Amino acid sequence: MRSSFSLILLAHIFYNTTIVIRIVGNALSRLDPKLEAAARSLGADTFHVWKNITLPLLRPSLLAAALLVFMFDFTSFGVILLLGGSNFSTLEVEIYLRVLKLPNLPLAALLSIIQLIFTLIFSILYTRTINQVTTQTAPRFSTSRPPKNHPRKNLRYHFLHSAFLFFFLPLISLPIRSLTRLEADRGQRGEVQYGFTTDYYKELFINRRGSLFYVPPIQAAANSLGYASVTVFLSLALGYPAAYALAKPTRLEKFLDPLIMLPLGSSAVMLGLGFIISFGRSLASPWFVPIAHTLVALPFVIRTLQPALASIPERLRQAASTLGASPFRVWQTVDFPILSRATLSAATFAFTVSLGEFGATLLLTRPEYPTIPIAIQRFLSQPGGLNFGQAMAMATLLMLLTTLAILAIEKLRLSDSGEF
Amino acid sequence: MLEVRNIFKTYENKPLLRGISFSVAQGETICLLGASGSGKSTLLRMIAGLEFPESGQFLFNQIDLAQTPPHLRDFGLVFQDYGLFPHLNIFDNIAFGLKMRNVPAETIKPRVAEMLDLVNLTGFENRKVTDLSGGEQQRVALARALAPSPRLLMFDEPLGALDKSLKEDLLNQIRAILHKTKIPAIYVTHDQDEAFTIADRILFLHDGEIIRDGTPDEVWNSPNSVHAARMLGMGNTLEGRMKNAEGGMINVETRFGMFKAECNHNHSAGDKVSLLIRQSGEGEEIKLTVEDVLFDRDQFQVKTGSGLVIHMKDAPQVGEIIRVRVKVECLA
User: Fold this and answer.
1) Edge-to-edge, what's the strand order for the sheet holding B75-78?
2) CATH code assigned at A224
């Protein structure tokens, strides 16, 4: 039990560290290097620069990162469901259990409301702090370059090395395990066999159970890609107007800002429950899944589009129109080229969110349309080396698709639109 | 006091500074004048210890600074965009250097007030950085650098972001403060007006080398190079070919005819020479056709057909032919 607690903790640290790195790293890169230079010339040594300048200036983004991580883990689902057991169940897992395993919809709804209140509070706190982060931005026209051959670099390298091991090992172990045989022969109590195998991948294409509803696992990948495409389309269609509204907010829209961020913290399972209560489980349509994914992805999409929109100085539009451009031409020649990269990166965000989404999908999916995460969960919940191997193979596939999408984001990312 | 010895530095594999040497004496203000990208800010950052040269030495009172980290050098630095700490108020910004030196709190308070008096911002202690105008922020930055009484003050284009009248105002304040405190200073700028106002000595930085080093008055009277002449806004430079020497003067053939020029270089006949042509009471008389007349405070700037620009008390007519006396010097 102790060990599963540490495992849960480790897993959460694993996928949240990147969030912290992203938010704090972004703030760090925007710190004016001149401030450090000024502090050093005024007699501050490395420690005092860090304590008196860097840390206080990073405080809002540290707080924002902490709140976001707290919000994510408050509604943690997949990891707990797979690693936890009843002792460690979160509100989210409890809601899921009250819907599917021990049906008690009123209790599930009550738990959801409790969770919703908490996430709403965190959303409001988060939007407040993140706004502070963006107002404390360093002057943009800074000409000074960060000093080279800095002695502290060595320390940074050591940190990166150990971080690399921590993050790389779990990820690399998936594809390795998916290609390694580590099981007893079927039906025999023989020796455990080791060796290289591609069987797990081959099995993905075979419908072993011959059931009417059961589809070959590889079909799950096709479903995932289909859902992801619909999610991209829907979330952009909804995200654009919202981002435009938030880029020049009126008072009402400022008030609505945390509400738009709400799905970020509000849980996927809760979303699923909402759909079930509203439409009834029997009515479940395959469309529910991409719609739920859209709601989960929307905050990411808006948070990517909004800074890009806000970064377009009004002067550019005014200049274009005084030069004779019609409003449409202004949009076409000024807004669009700047937004196209943000749009692509928002689309990729939506795509990856949809690929990896688990909680809402688990509640809403119909057995004949599984997604990759659902397929992984199905394999993991069945005994045997073959099932485990196939889970690894599916996970590797998911990792591959996500990596491709993330690489695309990194290529396209506007250098200063990293906040979500 | 400060001695800079043979500094070399490359930036992105291109030589930026190629053997810079100069020194700054007690109470002296020197001005590094150079175009943007000429490496003047890098030189300042190296003196401050924030960057390192590939070779060369910085000495202060004969002591090599190579092993002294920036926070122990005790050199004040003032930036173009101020570099005030946005999370601290004015008091804490100015007190920063004193706190780093563990000055007791009861000494800090009057010292900060004294500094604010010095820069005409009495009573600004509790204001926020963001509430101040550009000129006020720059004065706070100056007060912050001055508060710990540094051994040397460095200014990196401190007035670049300010408008003209504010610039002159602040420049005079900085000049007065430097004279009063006797702190040696290095002032970096690309604006020759600032340089002439503030400097005891001007150093021209061009192509990674110091091409001219002298008092404002020496530099103005003999810039000694085309680049220095252009940087000083002396405009009238002319290319020609030397014809022959004649009693300490040389005759130079240009597209406007023959000029007699003073020269202390070793030219031989046929060499390419650059001339500086300045209006003067005595000297050769030349004829010029007026092309355009511009109002310039108490006189008129006259552009002529030859490309020469001269100044006149009374505005001539466009197209008129005028006679002016000019002094011709050989620059290189």
Assistant:
1) B75-78, B152-156, B185-189, B29-34, B201-206, B209-214
2) 1.10.3720.10
- Count of domains in chain A? 2
Residue A82 sits in the same domain as residue A225: no
State the residue range of the domain holding A24: 1-137
Q: Is the pLDDT of residue A81 over 70?
A: yes
B54 has a pLDDT exceeding 90: yes
Question: Could you report the per-residue pLDDT of A23-80, keeping only the tens digit for each?
Answer: 787 778 778 888 999 999 999 988 999 999 999 988 888 888 888 888 878 878 888 8
pLDDT digits (tens, 9 = 90+) for B231-264: 776 767 888 888 887 777 788 888 777 788 877 7
- B94 CB neighbours in chain A (<8 A) are none
CA distance A33 to chain B (A): 9
Domain membership flag for residue A145: no
Q: Which domains does chain B carry?
A: 2-230 (3.40.50.300), 237-330 (no CATH)
Contacts of A45 in chain B (CB under 8 A): 69, 71, 100
Residues A290, A420 within the same domain:
yes
- pTM for this predicted structure: 0.71
